[in-house]
Design brief:
It comes from Antarcticirhabdus aurantiaca. Keywords: ATP-binding, Nucleotide-binding. With 355 residues, the protein is of the alpha+beta class. Helix content is 24%, strand content 35%. It folds into 2 domains: 2-232, 3-Layer(aba) Sandwich (Rossmann fold), CATH 3.40.50; 236-349, OB fold (Dihydrolipoamide Acetyltransferase, E2P) (Beta Barrel), CATH 2.40.50. It contains 8 helices and 19 strands. Strand 12 (250-253) and strand 13 form a beta hairpin. The chain is elongated and about 75 Å long. Bound molecules: adenosine-5'-triphosphate (ATP).
Length: 355
């Protein structure tokens, strides 16, 4: 049973359609990310769930109640925005109490709830401060407490971390996820940062040009991208041209057989593109490895725990991450190497779309 149901939602501004046929069923307590490049419609979809925009078509149902045409304040939704939207002339405590005051909750209940919320975000000691006296990360935690104080049914987060510096962003996303789990609140998080989406979500909705490209767990999205767009947008990928003939899961790359985990779609002799993640390619043959591609190292980029090799092969250039070892330097440009990979670590992209 889903808790939040978005069905057939589209949105046009004038003649410009920015969300098309969006369908999503979110379970109670689930953490969903909308991920996609700038302008793909993620914020517009989120704003329709919040009630700040009206869908041109489709329905939005929360906990069995059709809210499609209900105003934002009747939806019991909490929202946090990218820019700190705290009231500058109110203390932290008053900011957190705001939604409860609007809802007409008695003063004693408000005070109790504010203390509870500030305890949750570990900022009780800052209750009497004003927003200008807080760091960016603290302001976003207060914004989160303010959104959660009235016990919303759904929490909507619109790029809440994008204005913060890298270190705070990582620690705050962990904190948001822990808090979301503790409260069990159904959450939608908008981001254009794939690492953020992969790290924080139960499921990711990857969007492009107003459509859902793929919806799945971080593991599925990263390891089994269904379209070229998803494969290219999430993580680093290199592509090699191969040829398939007939049914089966073996293809050839420059005349050498390569075995995949699954049969390749289509029939007859046809070109296929193989896609590799840099961490799937190993220099060491290891046990049970049957697939090998020979190539010449063009460049070796030191990334810290790994060294990323650029290897020219007959089918295309491959990126391969090899572990950095203080004892053994990585292969140097000009060296010939053999890259190995397991059948399950390569996937075939065919034609226009499906992998
Ligand atoms: P970003 O990450 O840059 O915020 P996004 O994926 O959230 O991008 P949206 O903000 O949803 O994208 O915008 C999608 C498209 O809809 C854009 O082309 C934008 O210009 C357009 N758009 C959004 N709001 C309006 C509006 N009120 N009137 C007209 N066009 C709009």
């Amino acid at each position: 049973m889903s808790f939040l149901d978005i069905s057939g939602v589209s949105k046009s501004f004038g003649g410009n359609t920015v969300v098309r046929g969006f369908d999503l069923a979110v379970r109670r307590g689930e953490f969903i990310s909308f991920l996609g490049p700038s302008g793909c419609g993620k914020t517009t979809m989120l704003r329709m769930v919040a009630g700040f925009e009206q869908p041109s078509a489709g329905r939005i149902v929360i906990d069995g109640e059709d809210v499609t045409h209900r105003p934002p304040n009747a939806r019991r939704i909490g929202m946090v925005f990218q820019a700190y939207a705290l009231f500058p002339n109110m203390s932290v405590g008053d900011n957190v109490a705001f939604g409860l005051k609007v809802a007409g909750r008695p003063a004693a209940e408000r005070a109790k709830r504010v203390d509870e919320m500030l305890g949750l975000i570990k900022l009780a000691h800052l209750k009497d401060r004003y927003p200008y006296q807080l760091s960016g990360g603290q302001q976003q935690r207060v914004a989160l407490a303010r959104a959660l104080a009235p016990s919303p049914r759904v929490l909507l987060l619109d790029e809440p971390l994008s204005a913060l510096d890298a270190k705070i962003r990582v620690s705050l996303r962990t904190e948001i996820r822990a808090l979301q789990r503790e409260l069990g609140i159904t959450t939608i998080f908008v981001t254009h940062d794939q690492e953020e989406a992969l790290s924080i979500s139960d499921r990711i909705v990857v969007m492009s040009e107003g459509r859902i490209e793929q919806c799945g767990t971080p593991h599925e999205i990263y390891n089994r991208p269904r379209t070229r767009f998803v494969a290219g947008f999430v993580g680093t990928l290199s592509l090699v041209e191969a040829e398939a003939e007939g049914a089966g899961s073996t293809v050839t790359v420059a005349g050498q057989p390569v075995t995949l985990a699954e049969p390749v779609a289509g029939s007859g002799r046809r070109p296929v593109t193989l896609a590799f993640r840099p961490e799937a390619l190993k220099l060491d043959a290891g046990e049970g490895r049957i697939n090998a591609i020979r190539g010449t190292v063009e460049a070796a980029e030191f990334l810290g725990s790994v060294v990323r090799l650029r290897v020219a092969t007959p089918g295309g250039t491959l990126l391969a991450d090899v572990f950095n070892s203080p004892a053994a330097p990585p292969p140097a440009p000009g060296e010939t190497v053999v890259l190995h990979f397991a059948p399950g670590d390569v996937f075939a992209l065919d034609g226009e779309g499906a992998a």
